[in-house]
């Protein structure tokens, strides 16, 4: 369990988790409910929403919340380790206790929607995150990427500790060059970028940038805090502007070579947001605590929101749910209102239950995974022993 001091430290991290979780719900809600209001399924290549309004584009390109989650993973683990060696077995055991209980429950319930019993191949696919297409599996691919990162984090942490940030920067450059070579060597005229964009090869930048942000946080927090009033608006504007630009070029549904660098740019912007926001320290008050509580259940929100949307989608075209939105409201706006009024509150209620009934009992089984060693300097008032037992992702 977190102590009161740890909760104060973690409040900014939980705020960012909450923002990412809400953005994911809004993003998928607009897609799923927007299409169902028109009596059909969402078709990305045809129906991708487009707007010149930056606020709308942040929702339409809400997949950027995945980048924020991945940056937070690299940041949180690196702060938790604080330069000490990571015990590989305990670290992976903790990650399994964090991810698998709720994931397996949702994935197996998804298989239960089939008419026939699942095969051994399907069950193996669930265990390895290569789950077959199912109504609740829209975010499972991100868990596969996270698990791949967990396998290499102890080594990356050692590189950062012993060689400094230059080692990770060189690794970033090497990955970028290799990605470009893969794209250039493709035998087709317009190489597909999906595998690079949705796999660890395209997402490792975001974890590494999160680790670099943690390195900067542990050493320069006071300086960053002093410049927060300027840096935080700049970082937020960059995140909003990048989402707007990506929407204008319809980047998500294209195979543009821009995707080779999109993950890096996206990760760099979110790393700046995380670094400046967390370095500024938490705000105290009812609203801060409420948002932090939402951040605590963000993993449940992430995994269960498709279940809620699947139910609402069956009734979105008519009935009392559709009546919540005035007649004549355009489908994107109607879908956003239904998501805000119904899908998001319903998902939060379900997530509160699954967090306390499924996640929390297993989270309490985790053990410290850092070995004794020289610690990286950190803010004294926010010291937290035990690595992930205090700072969780």
UniProtKB/TrEMBL annotation:
Q: Locate the Acyltransferase domain: which residues?
A: 13-355
Does Endoplasmic reticulum count among this protein's keywords? no
**What Pfam families does this protein map onto?**
Acyl_transf_3
**Transmembrane segment boundaries:** 58-79, 100-118, 138-156, 168-188, 194-218, 230-247, 267-287, 299-317, 337-358
**Which residue stretches belong to region Disordered?**
373-393
Task: Determine the domain of life of the protein's source.
Answer: Bacteria
Q: Determine if Transferase is one of this entry's keywords.
A: yes
Which GO molecular function entries does the Swiss-Prot or TrEMBL record give?
A: acyltransferase activity
Alphabetized UniProt keyword annotations: Acyltransferase, Membrane, Transferase, Transmembrane, Transmembrane helix
Q: Which InterPro entries match?
A: Acyl_transf_3_dom, Acyltransferase_3
Cross-referenced PANTHER family, in alphabetical order?
ACETYLTRANSFERASE, ACYL_TRANSF_3 DOMAIN-CONTAINING PROTEIN
Q: What is this protein called?
A: Acyltransferase
* The species this protein was found in: Streptomyces lichenis
Taxonomy of origin reads: Bacteria, Bacillati, Actinomycetota, Actinomycetes, Kitasatosporales
């Amino acid at each position: 369990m977190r102590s009161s001091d740890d909760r104060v430290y973690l409040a900014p991290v939980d705020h960012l988790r909450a923002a990412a979780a809400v953005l994911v719900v809004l993003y998928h809600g607009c897609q799923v409910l927007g299409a169902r209001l028109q009596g059909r399924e969402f078709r990305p290549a045809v129906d991708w929403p487009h707007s010149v309004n930056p606020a709308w584009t942040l929702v339409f390109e809400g997949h950027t919340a995945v980048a924020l989650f991945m940056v937070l993973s690299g940041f949180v683990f690196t702060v938790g380790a604080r330069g000490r060696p990571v015990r590989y077995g305990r670290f992976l055991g903790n990650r399994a206790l964090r991810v698998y209980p709720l994931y397996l429950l949702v994935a197996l319930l998804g298989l239960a929607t089939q008419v026939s019993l699942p095969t051994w191949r399907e069950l193996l696919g669930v265990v390895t995150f290569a789950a077959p297409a199912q109504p609740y599996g829209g975010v499972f691919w991100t868990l596969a990427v996270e698990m791949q990162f967990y396998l290499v984090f102890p080594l990356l942490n050692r590189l950062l500790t012993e060689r400094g940030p230059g080692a990770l920067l060189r690794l970033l450059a090497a990955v970028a060059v290799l990605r470009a070579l893969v794209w250039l060597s493709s035998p087709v005229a317009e190489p597909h970028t999906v595998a690079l964009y949705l796999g660890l090869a395209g997402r490792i930048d975001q974890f590494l940038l999160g680790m670099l942000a943690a390195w900067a946080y542990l050493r320069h927090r006071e300086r960053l805090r002093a410049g927060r009033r300027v840096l935080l608006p700049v970082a937020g504007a960059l995140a909003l502007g990048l989402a707007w630009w990506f929407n204008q070029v319809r980047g998500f549904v294209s195979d543009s070579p821009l995707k080779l660098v999109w993950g890096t740019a996206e990760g760099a912007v979110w790393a700046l947001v995380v670094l400046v926001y967390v370095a500024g320290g938490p705000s105290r008050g009812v609203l801060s605590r409420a948002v932090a509580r939402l951040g605590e259940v963000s993993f449940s929100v992430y995994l269960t929101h498709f279940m809620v949307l699947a139910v609402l989608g069956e009734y979105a075209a008519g009935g009392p749910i559709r009546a919540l939105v005035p007649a004549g409201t355009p489908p994107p706006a109607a879908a956003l209102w239904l998501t805000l009024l119904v899908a998001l509150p319903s998902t939060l209620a379900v997530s509160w239950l699954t967090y306390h009934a499924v996640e929390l009992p297993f989270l309490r089984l985790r053990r410290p995974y850092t070995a004794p060693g020289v610690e990286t300097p950190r803010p004294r008032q926010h010291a937290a022993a035990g690595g992930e037992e205090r700072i969780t992702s």
